[in-house]
Specification:
Chain lengths: 606, 79
C-alpha cells in the first residue's frame, strides 16, 4: 500500500466507506479487524489531520476504508467534529459504517440518525456486544434495523464474532450504490427531532438490565454519597470485600494445596523414583513446587475478580470517582484516576488501557505512571504468602493492610512529585447511572475470563520463568542447589552490593530479577530456590530470614519495576520510549529507597 | 424573569433552565451528549462540600461535574 493520492482518477474507480462513531466505541479496533492489516496512517489531501485508511476486498471490489475521528455530534464545534463534517460534505463516499457502543445505544442513536440524514447507505455495527450482554442489555436488532431502515449487526470487534456478516452487509451496501456518490446533501441541523426519534426507537428496541428504581437509587446514594460519611463508608466496604474474598478464597486455597501435595507424594514422586536425579528435581522442585505454589492462588484470584465485577457492574465505582475527585484534584488528577487505581488491584494492564478515557495526554501519562503501584493480584500472591509465613494470624492482615497503604502512598506521592510535569486540565463530566443488580452471567463471565488469563499466564510466563530459575539454581548439577557455585549463586554475588543494604538475601534477588517478567514468578521462584512446596516454603523462609528482611523484600516486590506486560502496555499506550523508561526506572528507584529506608530505620530502632 | 446566574448558585430543592454553557468545546460537547444543554431543565441533587464536585439531574440522567465548570453554566429561573 504505497502512497496513493486521493486523486480525481481514484474517484471514478474506487469505492470508499467512512467509519464513523463516537469516541470509545472501539471504532479503530473494528477498523483493524475489517482491514485485517495494521492500518496505514496517511495525511489526507487538504486536511491537516492524519486519517487511517486501508484497502479491503469486499466481494469482487476493492474498497477503501477511512477511519474518521470519534465525535459526539455532527454539529459540534470541536476540531474533530469540524474535520468529520468537512470530510462528509466534501469527499466522495459510497457508504458509511456507523460504529455504536451497544452498551450505550440510547445515547448514541441521535448520531446514527444524524448520519442517516446524509442520504448515503449506512450500515450500523453495534460494537462491544460482549460488554452489552455482560451488562444484561438486550437489543432487538431486527426491529432496530427496521426503525433505522439500515442493516444492523451486533459485533465484538475485540474478539471477532459478527465480523463476517458485517462484511457481507458492507458488500451489499456498496453493490447497491454504483460508485462513490458525490456529496449532495449538506448537513442539516435537526438535533431535537433526531433526539426525539432516538429515544422513541431506543424505548422500542433496547431492553435494559434490572436496575434499582430511581427512588431506591436515591436512597442508597443518600448514604453512600454522603458528604461526610461517603468516604469512610467506602473504606468499610472495601474492607468487607476483602474479608469476603479471603473468607471464601483461603480455605479453597488450602484444599487445592492439599490436592497438589497429594498428587506429588502419591503419584508423581513414586513414578519418578527410577528417573535421573536431575530430571526428578526438575519435575518435583521446578514444575510442581514452582508452578504448583502459584496455582494454589487460583481460587483467591477467581473470587477476587468476581467481587471486583460485582462492584464494577453495580455502578458504585463511578460514585467512588465522584467521592474522591476533590482529593485527587490536588494531585493534578481526577476521581477517575482513583478508580483506575482500584481497577489496577485486579491487574494493572487493563487499568493502564483504561486511561484511554482521558483526553488530556499529560493527565493520561500521569495516570499511567501511578497505576503500576497498585497492588495487583499477582503481587498479592507473593505478599499474602510472605505475610502468612512471617507473621501470626492476628498480625498478617495488618501487614497486608500496611502494604495497601504503602501502595496508595507511593502512587499519590509519585503524582505529587510529577504533577508539575504531567498534570493536565482535563474536565470532568461523569454520568451516574442507577444502581444495577449484577447478573450471574456477568459474574461467571468475569470469573472465567480471569481464571483463563491466570492459567494461560501460569502456563507460559510463570512456567518459563520458574523453570529458568530452576536451571540457574541447579546448574551445575553436581553442586549444592542454590549454592554460591550455581549460576544463580554467581548472579546473586554480582547483585549483592545492590541488595545487601536492603537486607535482601543475595539468592532472593534472583527471584526478583525474574519477577520482572511476571510478579507471580517471584513466589514460584522462591519455592524453586528453597526446593519447597507451599507448605514447607513458609517454614524454610522463616528460618532463614528475619521479619525485617522479609518486610523489606515485600516492600521491594510491591514497588519495583512493573511487570513485562505492564511495561509493554505503557509503551503501546504512550508511544514514548522516554516515558516508558521513566515508568520502569522511577519505581525501581522508589522501591530501593523505600526498602532501604525501612530496613535501616527499623534495624536502628529495634 | 430573574437575571442570569450560574448553576452553582442554584438551591438544592429548586429547578432552573440552562441558558448558556460557557465551558470549552470538548466539555460542552460531552455535556450536551449527556443532555446538559440550553433549554433543558436542571436541578442539583447533591454537592460534596464547598468547591467539591456536584451531582446534577437533567431529565432522567445524573451527571457529575466540578464546581469550577458548573460556575460557567448560566441558568434562569429557580430561586
Amino acid at each position: 500500500m504505497s502512497a496513493v493520492p486521493a486523486a480525481p482518477a481514484a474517484k471514478q474507480t474506487r469505492r470508499r466507506i467512512a467509519v464513523v462513531g463516537m469516541p470509545n466505541t472501539g471504532k479503530s479496533t473494528l477498523f483493524n479487524r475489517l482491514s485485517g492489516v495494521p492500518a496505514r496512517v496517511a495525511n489526507w489531501p487538504g486536511m491537516t489531520v492524519e486519517l487511517l485508511r486501508a484497502r479491503v476486498l469486499l466481494g469482487a471490489s476493492m474498497v477503501e476504508l477511512v477511519d474518521l475521528p470519534g465525535l459526539y455530534s455532527l454539529h459540534g464545534m470541536g476540531e474533530d467534529e469540524r474535520l468529520v463534517r468537512h470530510f462528509l460534505e466534501q469527499e466522495p463516499l459510497t457508504a458509511l459504517l456507523v460504529v455504536v457502543n451497544a452498551a450505550q445505544l440510547e445515547r448514541q442513536l441521535p448520531l446514527v440518525l444524524q448520519l442517516r440524514e446524509l442520504g448515503r447507505p449506512i450500515v450500523v455495527a453495534l460494537n462491544m456486544a460482549d460488554e452489552a450482554r455482560r451488562l444484561g442489555i438486550h437489543i432487538d436488532t431486527p426491529r432496530l434495523a427496521q426503525a433505522l431502515q439500515a442493516p444492523v449487526f451486533l459485533v465484538d470487534a475485540k474478539h471477532g464474532p459478527g465480523i463476517a456478516p458485517l462484511k457481507e452487509a458492507l458488500r451489499q451496501a456498496i453493490a447497491g450504490a454504483a460508485a462513490n456518490a458525490e456529496p449532495t446533501i449538506a448537513i442539516t441541523r435537526e438535533d431535537d427531532r433526531c433526539e426525539e426519534e432516538a429515544s422513541r426507537i431506543a424505548a422500542a428496541t433496547v431492553e435494559l438490565p434490572h436496575t434499582l428504581p430511581a427512588r431506591l437509587t436515591d436512597r442508597v446514594d443518600r448514604a453512600l454519597l454522603h458528604p461526610v460519611w461517603g468516604v469512610p463508608l467506602f473504606f468499610v466496604l472495601v474492607f468487607a470485600l476483602f474479608e469476603v474474598v479471603y473468607g471464601i478464597g483461603l480455605p479453597l486455597q488450602d484444599g487445592l494445596q492439599w490436592l497438589i501435595n497429594a498428587a506429588k507424594s502419591t503419584w508423581v514422586g513414586p513414578a519418578l523414583a527410577a528417573a535421573s536425579p536431575a530430571f526428578r528435581s526438575f519435575v518435583l522442585d521446578g514444575v510442581i513446587d514452582g508452578v504448583g505454589t502459584v496455582l494454589t492462588f487460583l481460587p483467591i484470584i477467581l473470587v477476587f475478580f468476581m467481587a471486583m465485577a460485582v462492584v464494577e457492574d453495580s455502578g458504585y465505582l463511578v460514585r467512588v470517582a465522584f467521592l474522591m475527585d476533590r482529593w485527587m484534584a490536588r494531585l493534578g488528577l481526577d476521581g477517575r484516576a482513583f478508580v483506575m487505581q482500584l481497577m489496577g488491584m485486579g491487574c494493572n494492564v487493563p487499568a493502564i488501557m483504561g486511561t484511554r478515557v482521558l483526553r488530556s495526554r499529560r493527565q493520561r501519562l500521569l495516570s499511567m505512571l501511578i497505576i503500576p503501584f497498585s497492588l495487583c493480584s499477582a503481587r498479592l500472591q507473593v505478599l499474602v504468602f510472605l505475610s502468612a509465613a512471617f507473621f501470626s494470624r492476628q498480625i498478617a492482615p495488618l501487614v497486608m493492610f500496611s502494604l495497601y497503604a504503602v501502595s496508595f502512598l507511593v502512587a499519590f506521592g509519585t503524582a505529587l512529585v510529577w504533577r508539575r510535569r504531567f498534570a493536565g486540565d482535563e474536565p470532568l463530566a461523569l454520568e451516574l447511572p442507577p444502581y444495577r443488580v449484577p447478573t450471574l452471567r456477568s459474574l461467571f463471565a468475569q470469573g472465567w475470563q480471569s481464571s483463563r488469563h491466570f492459567l494461560e499466564s501460569a502456563g507460559v510466563f510463570i512456567l518459563g520463568g520458574v523453570l529458568l530459575i530452576w536451571l540457574l539454581t541447579h546448574f551445575p548439577f553436581d553442586v549444592a542447589p542454590a549454592g554460591p557455585a550455581t549460576l544463580a549463586g554467581q548472579l546473586a554475588t554480582f547483585l549483592a552490593p545492590v541488595f545487601a543494604p536492603l537486607g535482601i538475601d543475595a539468592i532472593l534477588s534472583v527471584a526478583l530479577l525474574f519477577g520482572f517478567v511476571a510478579k507471580e514468578i517471584v513466589l514460584g521462584g522462591l519455592a524453586v530456590i528453597y526446593s519447597a512446596g507451599q507448605d514447607e516454603l513458609g517454614r524454610v523462609l522463616a528460618e532463614r530470614l528475619t521479619w525485617l528482611q522479609a518486610y523489606s523484600f515485600m516492600l521491594f516486590t510491591l514497588i519495583y519495576t512493573p511487570c513485562l506486560s505492564s511495561v509493554a502496555t505503557i509503551w503501546r499506550e504512550s508511544r514514548s520510549v522516554a516515558f516508558t523508561l521513566l515508568a520502569m526506572l522511577w519505581p525501581l528507584t522508589v522501591a530501593w529507597l523505600a526498602s532501604f529506608a525501612f530496613y535501616s530505620l527499623a534495624r536502628g530502632l529495634l | 424573569m430573574s437575571p442570569r446566574r450560574s448553576l452553582l448558585t442554584l438551591d438544592a430543592s429548586s429547578r432552573a433552565t440552562i441558558q448558556r454553557v460557557n465551558v470549552e468545546f470538548a466539555l460542552r460537547e460531552r455535556l450536551a451528549a449527556l443532555g446538559l444543554k440550553p433549554g433543558r431543565c436542571v436541578q442539583i441533587v447533591r454537592r460534596l462540600g464547598a468547591g467539591g464536585p456536584l451531582q446534577v439531574r437533567v431529565d432522567h440522567t445524573d451527571v457529575v461535574l466540578r464546581a469550577a465548570d458548573a460556575a460557567l453554566i448560566e441558568i434562569a429561573g429557580g430561586s
